[in-house]
Amino acid sequence: MKRLLLLNGPNINLLGKREKEFYGEYTLQHIEENIAKLVEAHGFELNSRQSNHEGELVDYLQEANGKYEGIIFNPAAYTHTSIALRDCIKAIETPVIEVHISNVHNREEFRHYSMLAPVCYGQIVGLGYTGYRLAAMAFIDK
Ligand code: DQA
């Protein structure tokens, strides 16, 4: 069966409690269940992982290489800083779509730059949790 990986970075486990004006009311569990249902309706299986640790995210990406049709990835704060994640995404063959729940471009300037976007297959920003749904659909249509 074709599979997608939903990967979330630091503090995304606090969704539903954290800065709701940016990140909304939904919990991570709600989002993971919702995306799982969406992809299953199209004959795909979803695996979900979250980590607050940069190296662990690198491990998950490396392990995922070749096993998934695509990776839906919200790298959270590491988006703006992580050369390790950038090198990893560049090194693996499995395509990655970078997702941000909030519109990083109308927030602080340090959020405007993504280390990862140049090595990603695509990027979705500012559409709330719908961004994860759109990323899933992009891989399903691919
Ligand atoms: C985020 C945006 C990042 O700047 C921030 O550090 C996050 C969440 C988003 O989904 O909007 O933790 O990736």
Map the helices and strands.
Elements: E1 2-8, H1 20-23, H2 28-40, E2 44-50, H3 54-64, E3 70-74, H4 83-91, E4 96-100, E5 122-125, H5 130-141
Parallel strand pairs: 1-2, 1-3, 3-4, 4-5
Helix pairs in contact: 2-5, 3-4
The protein binds 1,3,4-trihydroxy-5-OXO-cyclohexanecarboxylic acid.
Residues 11, 74, 76-77, 79, 100-102, 104, 111 line the site of 1,3,4-trihydroxy-5-OXO-cyclohexanecarboxylic acid (DQA).
Structure report:
This protein is α/β, with parallel strands linked by helices and 142 residues long. It has a domain at 10-67: 3-Layer(aba) Sandwich (Rossmann fold). It has helices spanning 20-23, 28-40, 54-64, 83-91, 130-141; strands at residues 2-8, 44-50, 70-74, 96-100, 122-125. The protein has a five-stranded parallel β-sheet with strand order 2-1-3-4-5, sandwiched between helices. Strand 3, helix 4 (83-91) and strand 4 (96-100) form a beta-alpha-beta unit. The longest helix is centred in the first third of the chain and has 13 residues, at 28-40. It is globular, with a radius of gyration of 14 Å. The two termini are 15 Å apart. The structure holds 1,3,4-trihydroxy-5-OXO-cyclohexanecarboxylic acid (DQA). Residues 11, 74, 76-77, 79, 100-102, 104, 111 line the site of 1,3,4-trihydroxy-5-OXO-cyclohexanecarboxylic acid (DQA).
